Amino acid sequence: RGCDGVIALLSENTSNATGARFEIKVAREEGIPLVAMRVKVNQSVATPTELAGVNVMNWSWPDIAAFLKRL
Description:
Layout: E1 6-10, H1 18-30, E2 34-38, E3 56-58, H2 61-70
């Protein structure tokens, strides 16, 4: 709440990170633009249920820049 966009960084710990999952849930409920990115390229990580239907990308500066420009 009160932000223009959310960048959800996914690691092997994200599925157990209740704070991060809460932030993702609230962003989706509020219709805040959201992008999900793996912090390690091509790492297979469990995707939290709060990100169901969200495309998960590999971390890259060009993708971050493109997301920020859309805000």
